[in-house]
Write a structure and sequence with these properties.
- With 216 residues, this protein is α/β, with parallel strands linked by helices.
- Helices cover 42% and strands 16% of the residues.
- It has helices at residues 18-31, 42-45, 50-57, 65-82, 93-102, 115-125, 148-156, 171-180, 194-199; strands spanning 5-8, 15-16, 88-89, 106-114, 134-137, 164-168, 183-187, 204-206.
- The protein has a 6-stranded parallel β-sheet, with helices on both faces.
- Helix 3 crosses helix 4 (65-82).
- It is globular.
- It starts with a strand and ends in a 10-residue tail after the last strand.
């Protein structure tokens, strides 16, 4: 089958964001007097939206709603200042996007990162390529792995779910793809393991971004 489009996750798939996320959340934790974490720990804190990330970062016993909300406010402030300090596209992503563009493949982004940050980072760090639409977390739509946002993107592209490859680096992404009826492609250069991707429904694993081209 010839696929017509690719739906990408953002963090851990197109952009290596982990250092800036870790730094921002650690500063926010410090402002509340809580211990900080090694950068690698954030590979497992992220993926289910910023509220769950905040809960995971807080010590057990301090995960009440008021503390989570206070931490989220500080994270928002810090990340707004530091989201671009170290974040860049992964090696091979520009080459992949160039190839998809040259072959007329539609590209879209779906992230559990807040919508404003998602749009800004795509426009600032991936300006050469057209992603339509770019969708982040919004109060009006459930976050992944709920497939609602993915299915809305399919409708906006005037395609069927089976027309798209879904590329992501986490179990959340693979579950979203499966639930939406898309072909689930696990990105091994991202934040999570092959075992997680496969157990969550990945139909193919790829080692580098340009490996995706073999599926087209």
């Amino acid at each position: 089958m010839k696929y017509k489009g690719v739906l990408f996750d953002l963090d851990g798939t197109l952009l290596d964001t982990i250092a800036d996320i870790a730094a921002s959340v650690n500063i926010a934790l410090g402002r509340l007097g809580f211990p900080q974490h090694q950068t690698q720990a954030y590979r497992y804190f992220v993926g289910n939206g910023r509220e769950m990330m905040a809960v995971r970062a807080l010590p057990e016993g301090h995960r009440d709603a008021a503390t989570v909300e206070a931490l989220l406010c500080y994270i928002e402030e810090e990340y707004a200042c530091h989201w671009g300090d170290a974040t860049n596209p992964y090696a091979g992503v520009p080459e992949l996007l160039d190839a998809l563009t040259s072959h007329g493949i539609s590209m879209a982004v779906l992230s559990n990162k807040p919508h404003g940050f998602t749009e800004m980072m795509v426009s600032k760090l991936l300006p050469r390529w057209r992603f339509e639409p770019v969708v982040g977390a919004m109060p009006s739509v459930p976050i992944k792995p709920d497939p609602a946002a993915a299915l809305q993107i399919v409708q906006r592209l005037n395609m069927q779910p089976g027309d798209l490859l879904y590329v992501g680096d986490s179990g959340v992404d693979m579950m979203t793809a499966v639930s939406a009826g898309m072909y689930a492609v696990g990105a091994l250069w991202g934040f999570r393991t092959a075992d997680e991707l496969l157990s969550s429904g990945a139909q193919t694993l790829i080692n580098t971004p340009t490996d995706l081209l073999s599926l087209l």
